Every structure is written in structure tokens, then in C-alpha cells.
């Protein structure tokens, strides 16, 4: 197995790097590199810039407007975006619902939704989890009852990321209660402007409005918004989850954050010396760096097999990637100590001055640390990923 990049890969990396240097707006880059919060407009702006270049849908086949890149090219692109500090392309449209529409949607759905996802005309959110149905997703209770050419949807979704901005939600709904729970689920696309939908914020530990509850009260959804066959939604849902976990290792971003960590650890002092020269702290950073290097090699090994379809190894990458991301934020907070404690939301939202003690690097780090507690929960909790590994990889 040769894990080195070819000459073509390196030329591609240079092309991406040059493009990003010329096209990534500095204000967006500064927000990302400095752990500030991104607005809806920030995400949409970057999406539209990449769309103009034809580089939004790196995992889509060319026939649908994707790049048609190999897994290695996609990896290089993600690495370069992370290195440069681009905003993320939000996954809900491009990486989640789009592959499901391509695989199981009809031609009308493909023709209508896919171009709108590419151009960011529709902002999508994910309506899977419900109170009491997270890990045990198949127990979901939101009902969709057929009445003529419509479904009437009643129930509640929760933890719905950025639903406050969304135009569309893809939902798992129960269409049959008299069968095994996995066999009575359907996959519906719902316009968020439909009467009867209420979005209520959930404010997280970092006081950010990132997730929501979404309530459905007699919401009328046209039957043509059903994906595939009624009661076959569990199959489509699982297909989507495989795609959800592919980029979750986020090695590129972790590499960038490791450099940031070393920089702040060189700036902050312990016993009159730079913290990075403290043997105990330096050994923590070194062991994290070793873990990250091992993860990077594992990602490259998975990519070199390029099965075209994410398998159970995505669970392994998810666990390791999120552990490393969380550890990075822990060491950042440890490095800045009490300077991480003050909390200034206006500074996080983009104000250039902050009114509190400490430097600009330190000010966003406590909310950043708190925010990253989510990574071992979302996308299927890390305990559930371990269950998948024991069953699908170890065969236990
Ligand atoms: C920030 C954030 C954003 C999210 N965004 C979305 C979104 O946009 N759309 C959406 O649909 N969902 C979203 N989620 C929901 C997420 O998918 C669920 O939180 C997750 O699946 C866990 O479900 P739960 O919260 O109901 O916890 P539970 O399933 O109740 O789990 C509680 C604890 O028990 C453990 N556990 C449960 N079952 C088992 C088992 N069989 N074996 C071992 N341990 C187990 C879990 O690991 C966890 O530690 C988001 C969550 C967060 C935190």
C-alpha cells in the first residue's frame, strides 16, 4: 500500500491552495481561524463562492454537478480548506440528503432539489432525533398519516442543528405502527414554511443558538415529497448515516488547531517559562500529536481502499477524530488558564474589540471547549460507534 501522494495529487494540492489564497475572503478566514461564530450569511457566502468554481459537491458524481474527484482528491481538498481556515460547507444538504435523493429519489426530485442544494438556494436541516429517540432512532414517534394526496405530520424532532435558518427539513416519520419498528418508517422532505411547524431554540453550554426543537402540528406534506417507497425509510436513513460519518475525523482542522495550540502554549507562561517548555504539558501535546499522526495514516489507509461507499471503518474515524478534537480544546483551555474564563458574546459574534482581560486568542476558547463536547454525541454517539465496530468489524 503506497500512502504517498503522486505527482498529480501534489499538482492538484497546489491548484487548490492557489485558488483558496485568491478566493477565500479574509474576514471569513479570520473568523474561522480565531474561533468566532459564523452567521447564516457567512456560510451561504462561502458556499456560493465555491459553487461558482464548481467545488461545492466534492463527493457527488459529475453528472449531478459534482466534482467527480477521487477519494484522495477530496481528502486533499478538505485538508487544504482546513489549513486555510474556510467555513465548512454544511453537510445537511450536500452530504446527507443529496446522496439519498441520488440513490433513492425519483427523477423529478433529483431535477428539482439537487441544483438547489448546489447553489444553496435551500438550506437543509436534519429531522432524525426525537426526545427519547436518539441512539434508539428506530423508536421514533412522529406520525405521518396519508390523507388523499398529502401526509398529515404530527410530532416533535429535537437537536435540529441550525433549523432556525432552514428552508427544508428531511424527516424520518412513522407511517405504520403495526409492524416491526424499522419497517414502519418513511423518509419525507418538508418545506419549513408549511403552516403548523414551530422552531424553538435550545441554547447550549456556550450560550450559542445552534440547535432547536421542531414541532409539527397537523403539517400537510404533499405525497410527492416522499423519498422512495413508503415504509422503506429505515434503509435510506442508514444509507445517509454512513455518509454523515465520513468527514467527521476532521484531521485537517485538528492539524491546524494543533499549530494554534503550540502557538498559545509558547505565549503563556508557567513558573516564568513558556508553557510549551514545561515537561508535563509538552508531553501531553506530544502524545496528542502522535495520536493525530496515527489517525491521519488511518484515514489515508481507508481512502486508499476507496470502496466508493463509507463502511463501518467510518465509526473508527469518528471516535478517534472526536476524541482528538475534544482533547485539543482541553489543552487550549489549560494553556490560557484564567484568561479563558471571561465570556464576551459580542466578541464571538464578530466584534473586533473585547472588553475583558486576556488576549484575543484566549477569549473564545472556553465557549469553544464547551461547544466541542457535542462531537462525541452527535452523528451517533461514540458508544454507539463502538457497538458498530464490535459487531461489523470485530464480528463479536
Ligand atoms: C450539538 C448536537 C447537534 C445535533 N444535531 C442533530 C441534527 O441536526 N439532527 C438530528 O436528527 N439529530 C441531531 N443531534 C442528535 C444526536 O444525533 C443525538 O443526540 C445522538 O444520537 C444521541 O441521542 P440522545 O441524545 O437521545 O442520547 P441517548 O440515545 O439517550 O443516549 C444517552 C447516553 O446513553 C448511551 N447509549 C445509548 N444507547 C446505548 C447503547 N445501545 N449502548 C451503549 N451506550 C448507549 C449514549 O452513548 C449516551 O451516552 C444532535 C446532537 C447534538 C448534541
Automatic annotation (TrEMBL):
Its cofactor is FAD. Residues 6-120 form the Acyl-CoA dehydrogenase/oxidase N-terminal domain. It comes from the Bacteria. Residues 125-219 form the Acyl-CoA oxidase/dehydrogenase middle domain. Keywords: FAD, Flavoprotein, Oxidoreductase. InterPro entries: Acyl-CoA_Oxase/DH_mid-dom (IPR006091), Acyl-CoA_Oxase/DH_mid-dom_sf (IPR046373), AcylCo_DH-like_C (IPR036250), AcylCo_DH/oxidase_C (IPR009075), AcylCoA_DH/ox_N (IPR013786), AcylCoA_DH/ox_N_sf (IPR037069), AcylCoA_DH/oxidase_NM_dom_sf (IPR009100), Mycobact_Acyl-CoA_DH (IPR052161). Gene3D superfamilies: Acyl-CoA dehydrogenase/oxidase, N-terminal domain, Butyryl-CoA Dehydrogenase, subunit A, domain 2, Butyryl-CoA Dehydrogenase, subunit A, domain 3. The keyword Oxidoreductase applies. Residues 231-393 form the Acyl-CoA dehydrogenase/oxidase C-terminal domain. The keyword Transferase does not apply. Belongs to the acyl-CoA dehydrogenase family. This is Acyl-CoA dehydrogenase family protein. It comes from Undibacterium umbellatum. The lineage of its organism: Bacteria, Pseudomonadati, Pseudomonadota, Betaproteobacteria, Burkholderiales.
Amino acid at each position: 500500500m503506497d500512502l504517498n501522494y503522486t505527482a498529480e495529487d501534489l499538482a492538484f494540492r497546489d491548484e487548490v491552495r492557489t485558488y483558496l489564497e485568491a478566493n477565500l475572503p479574509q474576514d471569513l478566514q479570520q473568523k474561522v481561524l480565531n474561533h468566532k461564530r459564523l452567521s447564516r450569511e457567512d456560510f451561504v457566502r462561502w458556499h456560493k463562492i465555491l459553487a461558482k468554481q464548481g467545488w461545492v459537491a466534492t463527493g457527488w458524481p459529475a453528472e449531478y454537478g459534482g466534482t467527480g474527484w477521487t477519494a484522495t482528491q477530496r481528502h486533499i481538498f478538505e485538508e487544504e480548506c482546513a489549513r486555510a481556515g474556510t467555513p465548512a460547507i454544511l453537510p445537511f444538504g450536500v452530504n446527507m440528503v443529496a446522496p439519498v435523493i441520488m440513490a433513492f429519489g425519483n427523477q423529478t426530485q433529483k431535477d428539482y432539489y439537487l441544483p438547489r442544494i448546489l447553489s444553496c438556494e435551500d438550506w437543509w436541516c436534519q429531522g432524525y432525533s426525537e426526545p427519547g429517540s436518539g441512539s434508539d432512532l428506530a423508536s421514533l414517534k412522529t406520525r405521518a398519516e396519508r390523507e388523499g394526496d398529502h401526509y398529515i405530520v404530527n410530532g416533535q424532532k429535537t437537536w435540529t442543528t441550525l433549523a432556525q435558518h432552514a428552508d427544508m427539513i428531511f424527516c424520518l416519520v412513522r407511517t405504520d405502527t403495526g409492524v416491526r419498528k424499522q419497517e414502519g418508517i418513511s423518509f419525507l422532505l418538508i418545506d419549513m414554511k408549511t403552516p403548523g411547524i414551530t422552531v424553538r431554540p435550545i441554547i447550549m453550554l456556550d450560550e450559542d443558538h445552534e440547535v432547536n426543537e421542531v414541532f409539527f402540528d397537523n403539517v400537510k406534506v404533499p405525497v410527492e415529497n416522499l423519498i422512495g417507497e413508503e415504509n422503506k425509510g429505515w434503509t435510506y436513513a442508514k444509507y445517509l448515516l454512513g455518509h454523515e460519518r465520513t468527514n467527521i475525523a476532521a484531521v485537517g482542522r485538528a492539524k491546524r488547531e494543533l499549530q494554534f495550540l503550540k502557538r498559545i502554549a509558547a505565549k503563556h507562561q508557567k513558573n516564568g517559562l513558556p508553557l510549551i517548555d514545561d515537561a508535563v504539558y509538552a508531553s501531553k501535546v506530544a502524545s496528542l500529536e502522535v495520536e493525530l499522526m496515527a489517525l491521519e495514516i488511518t484515514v489515508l489507509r481507508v481512502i486508499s481502499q476507496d470502496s466508493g461507499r463509507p463502511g463501518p471503518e467510518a465509526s473508527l474515524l469518528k471516535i478517534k477524530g472526536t476524541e482528538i478534537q475534544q482533547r485539543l480544546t482541553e489543552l487550549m483551555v489549560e494553556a490560557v488558564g484564567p484568561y479563558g474564563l471571561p465570556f464576551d458574546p459580542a466578541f464571538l459574534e464578530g466584534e473586533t474589540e473585547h472588553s475583558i482581560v486576556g488576549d484575543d486568542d484566549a477569549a473564545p476558547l472556553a465557549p469553544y471547549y464547551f461547544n466541542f463536547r457535542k462531537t462525541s454525541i452527535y452523528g451517533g454517539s461514540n458508544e454507539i460507534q463502538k457497538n458498530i465496530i464490535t459487531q461489523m468489524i470485530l464480528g463479536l
